[in-house]
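Fold it.
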Amino acid sequence: MRRVAALAVVSLLGACATPAPSGPDVPTPSADSDDCAVIAAVAKEHYRFNSTDNRPLPIRFEGDYAPRCQWSRYGLAFEAYDPDAPGDPRERVRWVSFARPTYDGRGAVIETGIMHGPLAGMGYECRVHSGFAGWTVGECRNTWVS
């Protein structure tokens, strides 16, 4: 009986040590997945961006932060911000920006800003909560106005 119990314990330990499946059909979890979901929540709930009548402005990130997000997964279609893009110079001052979210026991806080044109923009600090419905924006407070 002891031998059977010992074999059961060994086989259970071996099952725990089994490596996770891998291969081309198994998606790799993204280290930025929470960051992407937090940014998408602010984009959709605070800025009210969507894929039809309020398309997102070009997106830029603060500093060396640049998460790789599948925006279509969230119903968004961001283009990368390019300050050197050819064309109308007024279009180059239209963007939405996001800093890296910081997480705590209540959710996350993220700095964001939007420029609609020269000297026409606002910055915010948004509190985002995690729950059964995913990430949702609690409140955003103004941090700067241009």
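The first strand starts at residue 59 and ends at 61.
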